[in-house]
Design goal:
Distance between the termini: 36 Å
Strand order of the largest sheet: 1-2-3
Largest sheet: 3 strands, antiparallel
Order of helices and strands: EEEHHHHHHHHHHHHHHHHH
Strand content: under 5%
Radius of gyration: 20 Å
Structural class: mainly alpha
Number of strands: 3
């Protein structure tokens, strides 16, 4: 399964879409007003990526060697779970510094599942789980909400466009992942925003089974109690963020309060989708590199950074609409992940 149109490699420069307009390296349309900023940032990133690729080539070779050694051992289920857990903890420790500068796109299908403990989950729950869920999906009554959200998942993207060359396969894979998770964890089931998370995983060429386990990791471990009512985890996170903003940007928080802007209006969707339906794909993936390695605190750090980078514009906003517009403008034009992640 390919995620890019034509023969473009990850990291390629901007190109023209078949229907006109500029596409980013992942197949997303870049709005006309942001094309110049996107091309400028892409040029700077391309100059760094050769060095990054060499670094990650060495890092992943060492990690894969550990994988190979583990595979050669005859382990009980308990030992396999323990070994896989150790590999994930070790990888998070080793990669904690390098992920700040980003994982090259071609290494994410290997690195992300490793950081999310996919092998540990697979060993703990059983190798049969995902294949068994796929069989159950075939005869399952259709989930109407899920069905509707399939076509709302990054509409127009070549991998998820039913009318495109690869869209049918992409939509089918998205459906299998989400339906399987709904069966796997019926207490949560399918919830809106899961489709965007699974969609990014497919666009980044993560294996379908790995994507299923990663959706489970996000819903059950990384952001527990965020996806199903009463969504207590999301409520707690919104309150925590308000405290953090008061502590780190008290003048800004006071101004937003004066405008009547509840930050939950903005950050709730960031937390639920880990920014993936709000910002350019490369910026989202850079955020995910950090979040999968360092945990949910990285989500708060990024959210705070966005408010700090928008602070000057927010402080001159004289109503709630102007403040929201300033933040939305930053989201849409946030093509420089280095600026965001180094704030």
């Amino acid at each position: 399964r390919g995620t890019m149109s034509g023969e473009d490699e990850p990291g390629a420069m901007a190109r023209e879409g078949s229907q006109g307009g500029t596409l980013d390296e992942y197949g997303f349309v870049v709005a006309a007003e942001y094309v110049a900023a996107y091309k400028e940032t892409s040029l700077l990133q391309s100059e760094r990526r050769a060095t990054l690729r060499e670094q990650w080539k060495v890092l992943t070779r060492e990690l894969r060697e550990e994988d190979r050694k583990a595979e050669e051992l005859t382990l009980s289920t308990e030992e396999a779970v323990k070994t896989a857990g150790h590999r994930t903890r070790s990888a998070r420790k080793v990669l904690r510094g390098p992920v700040v500068h980003g994982v090259p796109p071609e290494y994410r299908p290997y690195v992300w599942p490793l950081l999310c403990g996919v092998d540990k989950a697979r060993h703990a729950r059983g190798e049969h789980v995902f294949p068994g869920l796929l069989q159950r999906c075939e005869g399952r009554e259709r989930n109407r909400e899920l069905e509707l959200d399939l076509d709302r998942t990054f509409p127009g993207h070549p991998l998820l466009d039913r009318e495109g060359a690869n869209g049918g396969a992409g939509i089918a894979a998205l459906h299998r992942i989400l339906n399987s998770y709904a069966l796997y964890n019926p207490e949560v089931g399918y919830c809106q925003s899961m489709n965007f998370i699974a969609g990014i995983l497919l666009i980044m060429d993560v294996r379908e089974e790995d994507a299923f386990w990663m959706v489970s990791h996000v819903s059950d471990s990384l952001l527990p109690n965020h996806f199903a009512p009463p969504m207590l985890g999301a409520q707690v996170d919104n309150k925590v963020f308000k405290v953090l903003l008061s502590r780190h940007a008290p003048e800004l928080k006071a101004h937003l309060d004066t405008l009547g802007l509840d930050t939950a209006m903005v950050v709730s969707q960031w937390f639920l989708c880990i920014f993936c339906n709000k910002m350019p794909c490369e910026t989202v993936c850079r955020i995910w590199d950090l979040v999968f390695c360092k945990g949910p605190q990285a989500i708060f750090q990024v959210a705070l950074a966005i408010f700090r980078l928008c602070e000057a514009r927010l402080l001159v906003a004289d109503d709630m609409g102007g403040a929201v517009e300033a933040i939305r403008g930053f989201e849409a034009g946030g093509f420089n992940p280095d600026e965001l992640l180094e704030t």
